[in-house]
Amino acid sequence: MTAPGPRQKRPSRGRPVATTHAEIEQAAFRLFAERGFEATTLEDIAREVGVSRRTLFGYFDSKNDIPWGQFDRTLESFRALLEAMPEDLPLHEAVFQGIVGFNEFPGDAEPPHLDRMRLILQTPALQAHSVLRYREWRQVISEYVARRLAVDPGDLLPQTVGHVSLALALTAYERWLSDPDSTVPQLLAETREALGDFLERF
Fold first, then answer.
1. What is the CATH number of the domain that holds 188?
2. The 3-state secondary structure of the chain, one letter per residue
3. What is d(CA 181, CA 188) in angstroms, rounded to the nearest whole number?
4. Number of domains forming the structure of the chain
5. Of 106, 124, 116, which is closest to residue 177 (Cα–Cα)?
6. Angle at CA 129, nearest 5°, toward 157 and 69?
7. What is the pLDDT of residues 43-75, one digit of tens each?
8. Residue 193, domain extent
9. What is the largest CA-CA distance in the chain?
């Protein structure tokens, strides 16, 4: 569920752009594949890109942010996607369609989305940071649900919908990592159906 996504920062006025987010991500993922995430330092990534360590901080706040891409911009797109849903569309369907749309990605993405999600989901050193990102993602859903229901985003139902939505997405991605021939939208639909069947009997 991510990624492409930390915020894009503008370089100082009058200075040329030394690189791009994409170039940094591609270089970092090459090193992660060769050395492992924890063994790769920011200095290694800067050297691979051909910029200074300080320059990297103009694009990403930390090494942990690199696997998430430009996540802040992605969340802005997620908000816009949900807000564009027809108001007469049932809320549960609007949220689900938003989740599916958020998790659509180009097949030729570089680094590949499968590699990105495998790193995020299977790297112990990233888990604490991922919790922060998951919370931001859930909050987008909670705020949308709260607006549609005219309640506070911190109320029980908006918060529950956010958590359930994250669980659906993570379950779909974990299955995708073990079965790359499937698709994330397909797995999201199957996961929602399985949950619905369970809740009918709960």
1. 1.10.357.10
2. CCCCCCCCCCCCCCCCCCCCHHHHHHHHHHHHHHHCCCCCCHHHHHHHHCCCHHHHCCCCCCHHHHHHCCHHHHHHHHHHHHHCCCCCCCHHHHHHHHHHHHCCCCCCCCCCHHHHHHHHHHCHHHHHHHHHHHHHHHHHHHHHHHHHHCCCCCCHHHHHHHHHHHHHHHHHHHHHHHCCCCCHHHHHHHHHHHHHHHHHHC
3. 14
4. 1
5. 116
6. 95
7. 999 999 999 999 999 999 999 999 999 999 999
8. 71-201
9. 63
Q: Determine the Cα–Cα distance for residues 21 and 198; give it in Å rounded to an integer.
A: 42
Q: For 14, what's the count of Cα atoms within 13 Å in the CB-facing half-sphere? A: 0
Flag whether 190 is in a domain.
yes
Lookup result for tokens 């790297």: 123
Task: Give the other-Cβ count within 10 Å of 69's Cβ.
Answer: 23
How is residue 37 written in tokens?
A: 């995430």
In a domain, 187, yes or no: yes
- pLDDT tens for each residue of 80-117: 999 999 999 999 999 999 999 999 998 888 999 999 99
> Does residue 22 form part of some domain?
no
